[in-house]
Fold this protein.
Amino acid sequence: MILDTDFADEMKQYSGDTALECFNCGTCAALCPLFHDNFPRRMIRYVQVGAKERILENANELWRCLHCGLCTHTCPREADPGEIILGLKQMVVETRRRS
Amino acid sequence: MFNPTDIIDILANNVKKTRGPFGIPKFITNRWWKTEEIPEKGEYLLFTGLMYQLAPFIETSTRHLERFEDTRWADEIRFARFVPPRLSGTGLAAMTPIFKQKQAQKALKDITRLLKTSGTDFFYRPQLDEYSGILLYDMGDRQGFADHARYVAENLTKAGVKKIITVDPHTTYALKVLYPEYTGETFEVIPYFELLALESKTADLEVTLHDPCFFGRYLEVSDVPRAVLSNLGIRTSNLRNDQVFTSCCGGPAESVSPALSRSIMEERKKELETPGHPIVAMCPVCAGNLKRSGAQVEDLSAVLARHV
């Protein structure tokens, strides 16, 4: 897997740079009504390490998010997980349209 | 689950060509005002965002999507983008029972009555009332949302509209929070229940109020409908997951995965049924979704109108 070290910067145009605030406590994954495979924590980790390719491979998973905002409301680091997921959806839509 | 890209392309094309997410001509969806006497000028524009009107069509669409999800036919939805939006929209309208379309108008008529009773100076012009585009935003289509939002905002600005009454949480969030950022236009946006001044009457009733995510968590206005109910003597049950900690009804997922949406709403239905009181919703998407799970749900406007 190729890591894109500029990915967190690229995401600033979609959802700001709050992903780097996340310290992976897992509150978002514990409260998310999806109870699905560490969502959204896993996706935020991918943003932090620049695993854009991995996000694009699993992109459809992003649309399971209800954008209910519970994760954002309870995040102890104010990392805004809900908006990061929305930003990833926007990135995927624009990437697919460009290609 | 359907391929989200296919769903987004269909929705975006519908909004671009018809200004609505399903391609249904507006003269079919927006008819509630024809029997109402509402002035064409006033302080606040009543802006429904067509969400209540679209609810029965969402129900029909979701029912059909549910039949094909995760079957070998699911991928065929990609061909839907080649069907002219007005044709597919008219087909969807034809499959939706007229009585359901009429039922959906009731909330708007009740809201009109409540605003009149409260002495609110408001007006309605159907030509200014458009879908807000919020689904495109939620699905991640920034460009499609921005283009549509600019069209809606420009029309409102040209008409000199400054103050807007909204009736559902999705449109309220779009106009209040997203439009200033995406269109540069700022309006004073107020949900209808914030303008209600209803006379006290002892209703002696307890209800369980379901807070939609946008009203409860994003806009934090849950205390207002509770105060309006309380003024009429209607108590609200305490739930663990309510107000800013409300649980989602599952509605936002219904276009890409009706099955996921159903599993979320069944959890919420259990929570709402626990106190054993009538369930009240204040969002047409939440109400429609909870009804799909078999819950008995009434709109806030209906409860208020019955006790005024």
The longest strand of chain B covers residues 205-210. The two ends of chain B are 44 Å apart (CA to CA). Residues 56 and 116 of chain B are 26 Å apart (CA to CA). The beta strands of chain B are 44-47, 122-123, 163-166, 188-191, 205-210, 234-236, 279-281, 297-299.
